[in-house]
Amino acid sequence: MAVEEDTLLLIRRLALRNAVEHDGKAMVDKVTAKLIAVRPDLRGNIKVLIPTIRAVVDEVNRLSRDEQRSSLEAIEPRVGDAGAAVEAMAEHRYHNLPQLPDAVMGRVVTRFPPEPNGYPHIGHAKAMIIDEEYARMYKGRFILRFDDTNPAKEKREYYDAIMDGLRWLNVKPDLIKNTSDDMELLYSYAERLIEVDGAYVCTCKPDTIKRNRASGIECVCRSLSREEHMERWHKMFNEYRANQAILRFKGDMRSSNTVMRDPTLFRIIEHEHPLKGYRYRVWPTYDFAASIEDSIDGVTHALRSKEYELRNELYYAILDRLGLRKPIVLEFSRLEFEGMPVSKRKIAPLIEKGLVKGWDDPRLPTLAALRRRGIQPEAIREFVLSLGFTKADTKPPFEVLEAINRRIIDASAPRLFMVRLDDCARVKVHGLADDMPLDGSAVVIRNHPTNKALGSRVIKVRDEFYLPLSDIIDAVGREIRLIDLYNVVIERVEPSEGGYASAHATFTGYEVKDVKKVQWVSVDDAVQIRVLVPRHLYVDDAYNPKSLEVVDAYAESYASRMDVGSIMQFVRFGFCRADADGIFIMSHK
Ligand SMILES: [Zn+2]
Q: pLDDT tens-digit profile of 319-344?
């Protein structure tokens, strides 16, 4: 059978890549598996192709490693051709990440440029994950750049929080840098811009500037000579005070895009910088720093959220005037959850008033909060990739992330019993079998119905239990089964006295029967715990005073022996994460 030319080329490319990745030795079975992954349509014909694959692999394995590498580079696809697109998707399952325009395999550089002015949240997770995934998809580079040029808003604490979030999400930059390390370079570009008549120093009052911008009027500064502006620029470093002078881009004061109406490029901020102290007082704005940094860092694809869309014209105009290479700017939508605002403006006042207890309060969408709540980093990555690179605004319900997380933690979370204090009956069991000593026998219960690796636990039981009142209140006179223990008939339930009801039951045997199954906590093994249940922080755009439910409960002592950070499922309650001694946070149902 004649093998089609494009199939042959694909086999050769896969064989070369397999060889390059495995010490120069390609393997027939690996190449075959990859071929089927990339071209599922060939599965039915694969037997016919095996001799060809074998021949190509033999040929490739006879090459020196340098020859393999250079042959691979020669035929490694320019991404954009359809075959390569299919290949990349099959290899990485990036079903929702479309190909980047003009992306060349091995040459893509992306960056995540957070300003260290707050705690990273789910929106940052989206940006950092998508930037990293694209770099990996094209075997390129991914840069983390702290855009730290507004010292009044930035803190050391926030750099650390962003790094923590990144590490937790297992996002690995190839390079980490700070814009503030490039200040001298940024100054030199500012001067070049003044020299080419692309920027000027304006000493008008802030009010005047604002008014002129609104009405599209040029100020007198604009028409001064370049020499004069250079002089004013130097004065910004030692003479002018904050708000007395700014460097403005010479745009178009009548542009319909108001961003282009001579925006600020540098301003004086006399404030200690978290990394640089008082070394600088003239700081670039985001618009200036981001375009220059992206260009000089070799960024090929600058992804940013949609609210910057109007700033793209300025981004390109700055680079144009300076004759610098222009990255491709792409926008994606912001990501936040329904009822969980990400904006600092909304969250900070709640923290100040004590309504929310810090940036890791489990009701918040910060990475620290999601982590504390028991959301797994893999779940966040999967969630972000499942939404993909959409430009439409996404405000998915939190339940979507919960569903992914549940699937990830389900098999490794021990199932434990707990009984809420507000739904609790203390039950005495009478007529226990003779082989069940009343002085406390031990029962062994498996920690997970299917995952045997989670082992089992030993529970001390006598004849008294806490049971959910709602489970037995309607069962008087009927037989129920205490899960994994034995059966009893509920004889009577007495009205509550001082908190919970008391009840009496009679032992009826061990045999597993088709009766109602009820979880239990042995009085001899009970510990009192507290579970925090986070709910929507915002309802109808207002703070929800019921956003944090506190549930006090009896749980088996095993729960209190689990390490902080462990995940468990309290039966019929939900998945929880051990947060501190005796304190648990509910992840989700
Ligand atoms: Zn002016």
A: 999 999 999 999 988 898 988 988 88
Q: What are the structure tokens assigned to 510, written together?
A: 């061990």
Distance between CA atoms of residues 386 and 401, nearest Å: 10
The residues, any chain, with a CB within 8 Å of residue 44's CB and separated by 6 or more, are: none
* Alpha carbon of 231 to ligand 1 centroid (Å): 15
Mean pLDDT of the chain: 91
| Ligand 1: centre distance to CA 205 (Å) | 8
Closest C-alpha to 296, from 194, 419, 162, 143 = 143
Q: Which CATH architecture has domain 182-299?
A: 3-Layer(aba) Sandwich (3.40)
Reference 304, options 453, 463, 468, 124; nearest CA is 124
Which residues lie closer than 8 Å to 305 by C-beta, 6 or more apart?
123, 127, 331, 332, 333, 334
For residue 251, report the distance from its CA to the centre of ligand 1, in Å. 13
CA of 77 to the centre of ligand 1 (A): 52
Nearest to 480 by CA among 450, 538, 519: 519
Quickly name the fold that domain 413-588 has.
Ribosomal Protein L25; Chain P (2.40.240)
The one-letter code for the residue type at 536 is H
Distance (Å) of CA 178 to CA 65, 157, 160, 328: 38, 15, 13, 21
Spatial distance between the Cα atoms of 383 and 123, rounded to a whole number of angstroms: 12
Selection from 354, 367, 359, 335 nearest residue 543 by Cα: 354
Closest CA to 316 of 288, 283, 284: 288
Which token pair is 365? 């969408």
Question: In the chain, where are the structural domains located?
Answer: 5-75, 182-299, 413-588
Percent of the chain whose predicted confidence (pLDDT) is above 70? 93
What's the 276 CA to ligand 1 centre distance in angstroms? 30
Note the pLDDT tens digit of each residue in 210-221. 999 999 999 999
> Judging by beta carbons within 10 Å of its beta carbon (0-12, 13-18, 19+), is residue 2 exposed, middle or buried?
exposed
75 pLDDT band, cuts 50/70/90, is confident
Q: Is the pLDDT at 437 greater than 70, yes or no? A: no
Residues 195-210: tens digit of each pLDDT: 999 999 999 999 999 9
